[in-house]
Design brief:
The complex is a heterodimer of chains A (284) and B (270). Chain A is an all-alpha fold. Chain A has a single domain, classed as MetI-like (MetI-like fold, Orthogonal Bundle), CATH 1.10.3720.10. Chain A contains ten helices and no strands. In chain A, helix 1 packs across helix 2. In chain A, 44% of the residues are buried. Chain B is α/β, with parallel strands linked by helices. Chain B has one domain: Rossmann fold (3-Layer(aba) Sandwich). In chain B, helix 4 crosses helix 5 and helix 4 runs parallel beside helix 7. Helices cover 44% and strands 23% of the residues of chain B. The longest helix of chain B is centred in the C-terminal third of the chain and has 20 residues. Chain B has a six-stranded mixed β-sheet with strand order 6-7-8-3-9-10, with helices on both faces. A four-stranded antiparallel β-sheet of chain B has the order 2-1-4-5, with helices on one face. Classes of the chains: A mainly alpha (284), B alpha/beta (270). The interface between A and B is medium-sized, with 25 and 37 residues.
Chain lengths: 284, 270
């Protein structure tokens, strides 16, 4: 080979790393797009059973119909809406509660901090499904119950992480330095603590979104999620269980979408880790 | 009236050990005092106690009075945090030993320097930007525009310490507490930062409390020296007195080691 052959230059590190973010966004974006379209247009009305029971793919029904004759693709679209709504609702709830509790514990005096930490450990040891069953027993199965149950579960995880992060930031010299120049506590929280906690937190919240989506599917599978007119992927899986050998698509389709969404969200979390933190972004 | 009067200051750890015992000294306007001692002698705790920033669990007794011009004289020990927030920065502020951890890693340098300018001088917008750049120029940072845009990990240790000094000076403090500001730096950078600090202090007529374990460092920037050991003051006097006629054996050790170091340097020079 001649010496003049140009060596392919490797893409700069920053670009290569954001590949995970891009792929994650594409996967999750697919589901989000499905959900958005479902708000304005559905192939069939949700309870239309004109297609006949367990029809195969094609012939007016893209993925066929379920055992009641409802269009599978229509249900998947509605399911994506529920998965995203419950997932993001639970993470929003868990994030707000968790960050607030974590900040409180991070700043608290010794005994209060110990109390919060103990409470968090108990909450984390408590399975989300058990909390959900209690809630459903108390106030009936509904989207809100699912959101609250999953949100409480993730708030404990977020709070425990926030508490540790806040404690670490508060022990840093730059907080003391800000104090010596007369910066007040609220300002220090806004300008120094939250921005420094944020990169780690946002990654964790994205991971929590994946967990929440799976939890919603599990709850619906067990019949503890959104009640019937809402077609959740979890319940689609449960309903397709009986006919999985004769009409496998009914179980495969929601399963695949669920996996795509969770993988997408996890990839986003991974990509965010690099993007959200300038020390990681530039120094390598 | 002195700017800073420390009287009978004692600091106890949560388990009751005395870390600083019955320490008394004062610093007048424009005066420069060196606080010298080995690690664990309580010098940094003294600095934190003066700012009212001791870690939770430590108990303080005695009195620390800050009497900065234009501000009411304030007893720091036992004062509520709100009152101290108004005092810190203007009356006294601190430059720390390790500039990397003393700067917020996720905030651009310019914003960190701008923050005290905004708060203490009430500057906004273009005027704030201007003042930030001139603050960076004042600590002899070349290319202040680039430095202002950089994150702390993108500049060198010496540059970081200059930024930290710029941040401290932006508060226009009456008293600057420098807690081993050159210990974490390369020897060649140390001398630069030290002379910069000495010049700025002199130009602004600030008072200085310089904390170090190195007599040679303190000799160049301060008038008086207070030697601490195990939390108590063992000797104090002018730099000349301490160097020429140390009374305490510990001070003599310090002087001897500084001298040995000097001689070793001199022997290598010719």
């Amino acid at each position: 080979m001649s010496a003049s052959v140009s060596v392919p230059v490797r893409a700069p590190a920053r670009r290569r790393r954001s590949v995970t973010l891009t792929v994650g966004c594409v996967l999750a974006g697919l589901i989000v797009a499905l959900a958005i379209v479902s708000l304005f247009w559905l192939p069939y009305p949700p309870s239309d059973v004109s297609g006949g029971r367990l029809a195969g793919p094609g012939g007016g029904h893209l993925l066929g119909t379920d055992k009641l004759g409802r269009d599978l693709f229509t249900q998947l679209m509605i399911g994506s809406r529920i998965a995203l709504a419950v997932g993001s609702g639970a993470v929003a709830l868990g994030g707000i509660l968790g960050v607030a509790a974590g900040l409180a514990a991070g700043f608290a005096t010794r005994w209060l901090d110990d109390a919060i930490a103990a409470a968090l450990d108990i909450l984390i040891a408590f399975p989300v499904l058990l909390v959900a069953m209690l809630l459903v027993a108390a106030r009936g199965a509904s989207l809100a119950s699912a959101i609250v149950a999953i949100g409480l579960g993730s708030s404990a995880v977020v709070a425990r992480l926030t508490r540790v992060l806040v404690k670490r930031i508060l022990s840093q010299d730059f907080v003391t330095a800000a104090r010596t120049s007369g910066t007040s506590w609220p300002r220090i929280v806004l300008e120094h603590v939250l921005p420094n906690v944020w990169p780690t937190l946002v990654v964790n919240l994205a991971l929590q979104l994946g967990v929440a989506v799976l939890a919603e599917a599990s709850l619906s599978y067990l019949g503890l999620g959104a009640p019937p007119p809402n077609e959740s992927w979890g319940r689609m899986l449960q309903e397709a269980q009986a006919t999985v050998l004769t009409a496998p698509l009914g179980a495969i389709a929601p399963g695949v979408l669920l996996i795509l969404l969770v993988i997408g969200v996890n990839l986003i979390a991974d990509g965010l880790r690099d993007v959200a933190d300038p020390t990681r972004r530039r120094s390598r | 009236m002195s700017l800073l009067t420390v009287n009978g200051l004692s600091v106890h750890s949560p388990d009751g050990r005395a870390l600083v015992r019955d320490l008394s000294f004062s610093i007048g306007p424009g005066e420069r005092l060196g606080l010298i001692g080995e690690s664990g002698s309580g010098k940094s705790l003294t600095a934190l106690a003066i700012m009212g920033l001791l870690p939770a669990g430590m108990t303080v007794s005695g009195s620390v009075v800050l009497d900065a011009p234009g501000m009411p004289a304030t007893e720091v020990v036992g004062a509520p945090s709100r009152r101290l927030d108004r005092l810190r920065g203007r009356a006294a502020t601190t430059v720390f030993q390790e500039p990397l951890t003393a700067l917020d890693p996720l905030m651009r340098v310019g914003r960190q320097v701008a923050e005290p300018l905004r708060r203490w001088r009430g500057l906004r917008g273009a005027a704030l930007r201007e003042a930030t750049l001139s603050a960076l120029t004042e600590v002899r940072l070349s290319d202040p525009e680039r430095i202002a845009r950089a994150y702390p990990h993108e500049i060198s240790g010496g540059q970081r310490q200059r930024v930290a000094i710029a941040m401290a000076l932006a508060c226009e403090p009456a008293l600057l507490i420098a807690d081993e500001p050159t210990t974490a730096l390369d020897v060649s950078v140390q001398a630069d930062v030290l002379s910069l600090l000495a010049n700025l202090i002199a130009a602004r007529g600030m008072s200085l409390l310089f904390i170090t374990h190195d007599l040679a460092v303190v000799a160049g920037v301060t008038d008086r020296v207070l030697v601490m050991r195990d939390g108590t003051a063992v000797e104090s006097g002018t730099v000349l007195d301490i160097v020429t006629a140390p009374r305490e054996p510990y001070t003599r050790d310090l002087v001897d080691s500084a001298r040995t170091f000097d001689e070793a340097l001199n022997r290598r020079k010719p």
